Amino acid sequence: MTSMVPFPRMPSTPVPSPPEDGIAQWYEHELGWATAASGEGLPVQLLTGLRFDVLELPADAGFAVLRRHAGLTGPVARMGQRMLLLVAAGSAEELPGLLDWLEWGGVALDLRALGTGGRMTAPSPPGWAHSQGAAIWLRPPEPRHEVEPTLPAFAGLGCRGETPGLVRLVSTAATECHRARLLRANSAYANAQPLAFS
């Protein structure tokens, strides 16, 4: 039986967000991750390409990926209607060639990778308050534990038996992105058709 990733519960009343400098300190001191301030009132950014890269895809496709790889991915975050899967550093550069090799080249998938020089919005640390619409962890990283061994990677680059390899994860993500795109297009087409009565 596969386990489902529950949707995060949203508070019934607005909760003030923690101060941005507290979030940055948590990431830097508890996880050893590089952060960048985005300016007053803007969320802290996590620098990609150093400890991890990110696969970004639509949330509906992301939940399908998580169902198929129940409990076997690294940390996973959600930002609005996008899901962010942390993968081994260097994976972003491999994505275009990997998609071509998997015969997804040239197909509009809405699957992107953030690598060296990229940034992702830092979700509030696990257990901290967050505001509506903020980035949240669905599968948070563990404080004071190295993240690299938990990240999907090419076999031989740190991939362990408890995480899917990068090829398998990208293959599943591409399939689910394509499936979600087709379902959305089919739904839009069905909603645009007038009802026929005999």
Give a verbal description of the structure.
- The chain has 198 residues and is an alpha+beta fold.
- Helix content is 30%, strand content 17%.
- The protein has helices at 20-31, 59-68, 91-101, 166-192, and strands at residues 35-36, 45-47, 52-58, 76-79, 82-88, 112-114, 119-121, 136-139.
- The strands form two sheets. It has a five-stranded antiparallel β-sheet with strand order 6-3-5-4-8.
- A hairpin with an 8-residue loop joins strand 1 (35-36) and strand 2 (45-47).
- The longest helix has 27 residues, at 166-192.
- The chain is globular and about 50 Å long.
- The N and C termini lie far apart (44 Å).
- Residues 9-17 have low confidence and may be disordered.
Shape field: globular
Oligomer kind: single chain
Q: Could you tell me the radius of gyration in angstroms?
A: 18 Å
> What distance separates the N and C termini?
44 Å
Order of helices and strands: HEEEHEEHEEEH
Tell me, rounded to a whole number, the average pLDDT. 83
Proportion in helices: 25-40%
Low-confidence runs of at least 5 consecutive residues: 9-17
Task: Please tally the helical runs, counting DSSP H or I stretches of 4 or more residues.
Answer: 4
Strand content: 15-25%
Structural class designation: alpha+beta
Strand order of the largest sheet: 6-3-5-4-8
Sheet with the most strands, sense and barrel status: 5 strands, antiparallel
Number of strands: 8
The gist of it:
By secondary structure, the chain is an alpha+beta fold.
Produce the secondary structure layout.
Elements: H1 20-31, E1 35-36, E2 45-47, E3 52-58, H2 59-68, E4 76-79, E5 82-88, H3 91-101, E6 112-114, E7 119-121, E8 136-139, H4 166-192
Antiparallel strand pairs: 1-2, 2-7, 3-5, 3-6, 4-5, 4-8
Helix pairs in contact: 2-4, 3-4
